[in-house]
Amino acid sequence: MGRYVLKRVGIGLLQAIGITVVVFFVIRALPADPVARLVGFNSSPEVYAQAQASLGLDASVWSQFTTYVSGLVRGDLGVSWVTGSSILGELRSALPITLQLITLAFALALLVSVPVGIATAKRPGGKLDKTVFGYGLFAGAQPEFWWGLLFIFFFYYTLGIAPAPLGQYAPGVTPPPEITGMSLVDSLITGNIAAFTDAAWHLWLPVMTLAFIVSGPIIKMTRQSMSRVLGSEFILYQQASGIPANKVARSTIRASLPPVLTLAGILFGFLLGGAVLIEQVFAFNGLGSYSVRAVLNLDYPAIQGTVLIITIVSLGVYLVLDLLLAVIDPRVKN
Amino acid sequence: MNERILATKGLTVTYPTVQGSFTAVNGVNLELNSGEIVGLIGESGSGKTSLALGLLALARYPGRVSGSIDFMGQELLTLPEEKLREIRGRSIGLITQKPRQSLNPFQNVGTQIGRVYRAHVDASKAQAQDHAIELLENVGINDPQRRIKAYPHELSGGMAQRALISMALSAQPQLLVADEPTSGLDVTIQAQFLDRMWQRAEETGTAVLLVTQDLGIVANYCDRVLVLENGKLVEDAPTREFFANPTDAYSKKVLSLAGERAQAETASQEAGSQTPLIRLEGLRKTFKLDDGKVLSAVSDVSLTVMQGRSLGLVGESGSGKTTVGRLILRLLEADEGDIWFRDTDLTAMSTREFREFRSKIQVVFQDPFDSLNPRWSVEKAISEPLDLHTKMSKAEKAQRVSELLDQVGLSADVRGSRPSGLSAGQQQRVCLARALSTEPDFLVLDEPTSALPPVARVEMIALLKDLRERLGLSFIFISHDLSTVRELCQDVAVMYLSQIVEMGPTSKVFAHPEHPYTRALLDSVLFHDPLDRRVDREHLGALEGEIPSPIDLPKGCYLAGRCPFAEDRCREEPQLLQITEPDHLVRCWKSVEGILSGASVVG
Amino acid sequence: MTIPQSPPVKGEHPLENLADKKIKARRWYHDKLLVTGAIIVGIALFLAAFGEAIAPYDPTVPVGPPSVPPSTTYWFGTDTSGLDVFSRVISAPRIDVTLAVSAAVLSGILGTFIGLMAGFYRGVFSGFIMRVSDVLQAFPVFILAMVLVALSGRNLTNLIFALTFLYTPIFIRLTRAEVLTQRERAYVEAARAAGNSDLKIAIKHVLPNSLTPSLIQLSVTVGFGILLTAGLSFVGAGVRPPNPEWGLMIANSAPQLVLGEWWTSLFPGIAVSLTVVGFAALSNAIERRVATS
Fold first, then answer.
1. Which of B161, B334, B364, C213 would disulfide-bridge B99, Cβ 3.0–4.6 Å?
2. Whether residues B11 and B71 fall in one domain
3. Contacts of B116 in chain A (CB under 8 A)
4. Would you tell me how many other CB atoms lie within 10 Å of the CB of residue B451?
5. How far is A18 from chain C (nearest CA, A)?
């Protein structure tokens, strides 16, 4: 097991390094001019040169890279070209917002999809199965920003049972001090019940929208995996050997789990960078909104920082997942 | 003794699909009595497995069983779940076709055996564990304390099968349902298992339903035969009567073909010349495994095939026989040794030279469907070697394809078919036609009959025999099926664990096998004759245990661990292939010195 | 959002064969999924070619008063600038569909070819390709897409290149995985024994038999491409206004939606949603049919 963990961590590290290098050079290979964006396209050559020097873009790409890497080694992601503040600090407040959003969406999706998937597997071709098939087709790939807007129109404008999509808190509510950066956790820790309820009030719609999009594939995978196990030799054999039904059911669920978990891990990692549009729609200042600003402003250090953070977190998730799978399935280690 | 154990009425198994339901077993009425072994035969897809499981009131998800099953006075289909559960695994035991897949991959073997035990016996976990250890010990698994911690994927198929069999039998069931229990096993091990099962039924009065495709098994072990066709029972007769006078059309066909074969002579000795065509000298091939270990697939194999003659290369799985074929074709490169084709050393040719030379040596593989490009028509497949090696015009090629189709007994209207539209037998004929297209001097036939259903197999053998005589083919026939080799080949070489252990003219080797392994192998052959059953004979030279792994080969004789005649010298001294008669070679010092006890059992 | 494809579960249920036989027996036009998919895809492709020509109004200039609700004059209403929503919705495939189809086809060809080589010739090259595509797949897709488009200039060619770059690894993986299974099959060995060279085996035998996963993926990828284009335009990193493009239309009308102006975002949204479902259905139907033949 120890060797397996080490190997997985090693591969993850290599991937993170690979991504860091690729991002750094790809950004600089593309024909954008961040200096002109900053000082205006009509600025004098002197002003331009000065700005270029202050961003460190006058040095060769290679020396820019060594400077960047030596910063990384010290845990320094650099300073934003636009705001002038530390990238690490900015990401520290953006990341928890996204993490909270997608974790909740995920919990909701799993809570609904896994039982539904199991139910459809038990009655293949049934009414639920047919409905869910359509939904799986529908929700695997959808314009979530549009669904978000649609839900806002419906739940906020028409029914009035959701808040205006203007961020994590209502304008009048004083947010709790930033401890973890997650609105629900921070308000709970500080005992600010008003902030807590308001945060939850502002979260339910975006969480539901994301869960709505993500559930389709999870249901599909649960059903597929479950029916494969139900039709497997070993479940048949357990039944034929007179193993009690509840134990057979437990074996079935355990054996159906690995593909579902794998998919869940992939989806989670994917949502880290994929919640961009939902954050935009609901005006959450998470990683997604941060990355949009970084890209549109050609803020290279911020882009690099965002990609790095997302990569590290998702690789961490994959690692935990792989270890979990290795615990469930003894064949994985080989 | 003939107490009725189980009777079904209108037993039906259906599987719902999105488009409606599919009936796999259709209103079967059957009876099983104590102490009786009943064979269930039928083509694949006829519903044999569904019927076998149906007797336990069980269907594979999402199937359903209906009708009536009377098991010792209880109606299984209306029995409460809990009662039914008690019967399954205790009063009715099941042995499946796929032993390893039948075990939960996520649980260690000990836990699983223990669970089944605890499902029927009021025992503690520790007691169940002891039971598991004892059970593994009984089936001859070494170090059972450690092995119960093993996961199914760490067991060999044979080991898993023995464990499952032992589990099924240890409960002393009144009925044992065995679904092709030996289909993945080698013949010597198959014999061990079936002998034990037969004994068991004799002693305890267990009723056995034995699903099989092998008429040899039916003739040798079964008291009664059921034939299933498209989910319906079409024949139910005592074994002798069935073989003597089958009523159903399918049964008739299978049996008449089998009958022809039983009368077939050993391949004639006169045919062919004494000019060597292919000569292997000291071939050796090892594979490096991922964990750094080295597997010896072929060690020191030398043999000669004469012009116009055929050599059978016989052995069980893992013997290296297939690797030898691959080496001759240079689909694998030998580590050491030479392959002479007349006066040319094939191993010395460059890849490019050899590519052109390939028209002279062709091959037919075991799995016909897999060896045809699924997107290519029959015509395209057969003419590919012509495209590569000849400058024939389109019309000439079409003409040649027609000739070839005719030669292998296929009608011209299959020309445009895709492999998926053909039966396995037809597919294999296409493969044969492709191999013959460039008029090769030599053929490697790698188990060309093993993957075929019984009827197609018999027809294929007849075709090969016919072609050998008409075209004067020279070939090496790789097989684990001794009776086919006897019919087709003038010479035979027996391989065991990467070595040739005995070689000589077929008539001689089959009549007077010298090596203990050859003897055991011949002794395990199940002939299709219910009047001359294996269970009525005595077996002196039966082998113990399983074939050892080719990774850690023993120091002395490779068979020593399983051989009933082995002594210390066998375990110490590496054995050499020695001449006992001018054309008969044996790798056993005892046999060479003429002190091997026990008469050969096959006359 | 385009959610990554779930890895297929190995070892299909034995009974699916039974069900499959029945599906095979049915005519293609009895397959609802296939028909639905084909109709939607057909309309999308038709509009990509002729949408602008058959539109009642010029989609890029104001043709009436702003914010008119759907009426007989303006079927889908007008937006805040007085542009006709219906004309814009049916003109948009010109950009969305063309772009997605081009990117899908390009990445399909490129990825299939690289995947074939990487699968057939194992070794350093194959290892390198796989590591590179591993790294690419670990990237946050949407962010990478924004970076590629925003930094290389927001025009159609760059969008196509960016999408192609993003989707090629999918085809590499799929094809390589299939090639790895195919090359172990006996027909490959038979082809070698017949005297084919490695390259001939790869092109003549293995490639045609390894195309299926890519073909199935192709249709899904078009859907992905449409979503990504719309998403990028939505955050302002894609197509420039006033081009008719679904994502852009939704983005522009988002502020109006909370004020009750639903028509400006509803119709382009339905268009995206349906088109994507259409391509997914087609791919799903093809997959089911292929599995049965």
1. B161
2. yes
3. 241-243
4. 18
5. 6
**Whether residue B156 sits in one domain with residue B205:** no
Under DSSP, the state recorded for B477 is: E
For testing contact with chain C, the best of B370, B372, B382 (most C CBs within 10 A): B370
Please give the span between the terminal C-alpha atoms of chain B, in angstroms, as a whole number: 35
Same domain, B166 and B179: no
User: What's A315's domain CATH number?
Assistant: 1.10.3720.10
- Which of B18, B61, B373 has its CB closest to that of C205? B373
Q: How far apart are CA B436 and CA A181, in angstroms?
A: 76
Residue pair B567/B255 in contact (Cβ under 8 Å)? The answer is: no
State residue C2's pLDDT score.
62
Closest partner residue to C135 (CB to CB) among A19, A142, A156 is: A19
- Do A82 and A297 contact (CB within 8 A), yes or no? yes
Q: Using a CB-CB distance cutoff of 8 angstroms, which residues of chain A are in contact with residue C257?
A: 149, 152-153, 157
- Name the amino acid, one letter, at B159: M
- Which residues on B lie below 8 Å from A247 (Cβ)? 115
A255 to B104: CB separation less than 8 angstroms, yes or no: yes
Size of interface A-C (CB pairs under 8 A): 183
Mutate to test the interface with C, among A295, A298, A308 (most CBs of C within 10 A): A295
Q: Please, are residues B310 and B254 in contact by the beta-carbon 8 Å criterion? A: no
Q: What is the pLDDT of residues C66-101, one digit of tens each?
A: 989 999 989 999 998 899 999 999 999 999 999 999
Amino acid (1-letter code) at residue B492: V
CATH code, domain with B209 = 3.40.50.300
Q: Which residues of C77-89 are buried (b: 16+ CB within 10 A; e: fewer)?
A: bbbeeebbbbbbb
Query: How many structural domains are present in chain A?
Result: 1
Contact A295, C146 (CB under 8 A): yes
Q: Specify burial of residue B548 (Cβ count, 10 A radius: 0-12, 13-18, 19+).
A: middle
Pairing of strands B207-211, B37-41: parallel
The whole-angstrom distance between C13's CA and the closest CA on chain B is: 9
Same structural domain, B180 and B52: yes
Check residue C287 and give its pLDDT.
82
User: Which residues 138-197 on chain C approach chain B with CB closer than 8 angstroms?
Assistant: 185-187, 189-197
Q: Tell me the nearest-neighbour CA distance from A190 into chain C, angstroms.
A: 33
Residue B291 has a CB neighbour count (10 Å cut-off) of 7
pLDDT at B262: 60
pLDDT value at residue B265: 61
Same domain for B498 and B581, yes or no, is yes
CATH code at C198? 1.10.3720.10
Share of chain B above pLDDT 70, in %: 95
Residue A277 near chain C (CB below 8 Å): yes
Q: Which two tokens stand for residue A288?
A: 């997604």
* A235: chain B residues, CB-CB within 8 Å: 61
Nearest-CA distance from A88 to chain B in Å? 43
Q: Do A143 and C273 count as a contact with CB atoms less than 8 A apart?
A: yes
- Nearest-Cα distance to chain A for C129, in Å, is 13
Is residue C141 one of the residues assigned to a domain? yes
Identify which of C233, C228, C245, C246 has the alpha carbon closest to the alpha carbon of residue C170.
Answer: C228
Cβ atoms of residues A322 and C174 within 8 Å: no
Question: Radius of gyration of chain C from Cα atoms?
Answer: 22
The shortest CB-CB distance from C197 to any of B355, B365, B371 is to B355
Which residue among B16, B116, B164 places its CB closest to the CB of A125?
B16
In this prediction, residues C194-200 reach a mean pLDDT of 94
Encode pLDDT of B302-335 as tens digits.
Answer: 999 999 899 999 998 888 999 999 999 999 999 9
Structural domain contains residue A187: yes
Tell me the pTM: 0.86
Pairing outcome for strands B232-238 and B475-479:
unpaired
| Distance from the first to the final alpha carbon of chain C | 32
